[in-house]
Amino acid sequence: MTTKDIVYIALFAALTAALGLMPPIHFAGAALPPITAQSLGVMLAGAVLGAKRGGFALLLFIALVAVGLPLLSGGRGGFGVLLGTSGGFLLAWPFCAALIGYLIENDSAAGPVKTGVYVALGGIALMYAAGIPWMAFIGKLGLGKSLSIMVAYVPGDLVKVVLATLIARGLRRAYPNL
Amino acid sequence: MLDLYSPGTSVLHRLSPGVKMLSMALGATLLFLNQSLLITAAATLGILALYPVARLPLTKAAAQLRPLLVIFALFFAVQWYFESLTLAAYVVLRLAALILLASLVTLTTRSSDMIDTMTRGLRHLKPLGVHPEKVSLAISLALRFIPVLAQITTEVREAQKVRGLERSVIAVAMPMAIRAIKIADDISDAIDSRGYRS
């Protein structure tokens, strides 16, 4: 791994943290956790850096959260959040970024729609596949009920997929050999 | 950088970070293996009793749980409605115990000490191709990048405001990302030109 790779990994870990500073969107009052921009960092890291560096960037981010830095949106952090109800989503982030990167690396000629599908596979499908069973396990809820809670987040995540795809493609055009 | 650490000199503050993290992992596993409400309630009280040991006020413990009150209420209601009051109490208490235990580690341990412990632990992974010094470099760079990125965002947003584009996400995100990559390139050149061997 070159110095440049290490710097990019650090940059996208920091980017995910910086996205947490953006004000979260509260829907349904205070009944459910808000939509935040942070999973955009996951999608961007995978789509821009590729599987290996993208995965490491999010691994670094999660490690920094684990040691108690308040980097999650709303200034949350520490082991408590990672073990809590949404822990499955957070712990899946490195794998989501890696999957997005892997899919895009293996299809460098993909158009915008196909890239968007890849981003959605890692950023929505895999993330929910990890987060929903975790929530069901922690809360002894059963998959059906956990799934119905998460439906509220799908529209926001689709917006993020579109944004991540546009930004990643623009960046690739500006820096072809990232 | 600001962390969630709460300064002190108690026994729990002085315990080594590795011991604390391992006990937390053990405690969390035990909480999930146990199925009895009585034991879970006892464990919650036991963990709560550790807060005064760490000389942390109980209001601090309450503050850890406050952001989760809504989700606690939701879980409690769903379990009570579909299952039973016992299960509802068990699930919420177990979750509370878990959060209180994990927060206790976070509150009594400096982030820098935990980072040191983790990078020291990584040395044992050297045969697998892990370079602890690269990990340390990545950690310190990431911590430095966060305020830099916040600064770039403000600058780009102001520049686009002049053009009436401050509400367009792409018009802000795109120049921001390009500037960030450019800074990253400059930094990696600077590191290499100072003879850092990776």
Automatic annotation (TrEMBL), chain A:
It is a multi-pass membrane protein. Pfam families: BioY. The chain crosses the membrane at residues 54-72, 79-104, 116-138, 150-171. Its main location: membrane. Keywords: Cell membrane, Membrane, Transmembrane, Transmembrane helix, Transport. GO terms for cellular component: plasma membrane. One of its GO terms (molecular function) is biotin transmembrane transporter activity. Coiled coil: none annotated. It is found in: Cell membrane. PANTHER family: BIOTIN TRANSPORTER BIOY, BIOTIN TRANSPORTER BIOY-RELATED. Belongs to the BioY family. This is Biotin transporter. It comes from Shimia marina.
Automatic annotation (TrEMBL), chain B:
It is a multi-pass membrane protein. The keyword Transmembrane applies. Pfam families: CbiQ. It is found in: Membrane. Keywords: Membrane, Transmembrane, Transmembrane helix. Its main location: membrane. One of its GO terms (cellular component) is plasma membrane. CDD domains: EcfT. The chain crosses the membrane at residues 24-51, 63-82, 88-108. The keyword Membrane applies. PANTHER family: PROTEIN ABCI12, CHLOROPLASTIC (PTHR33514). Belongs to the CbiQ family. This is Energy-coupling factor transporter transmembrane protein BioN. It comes from Shimia marina.
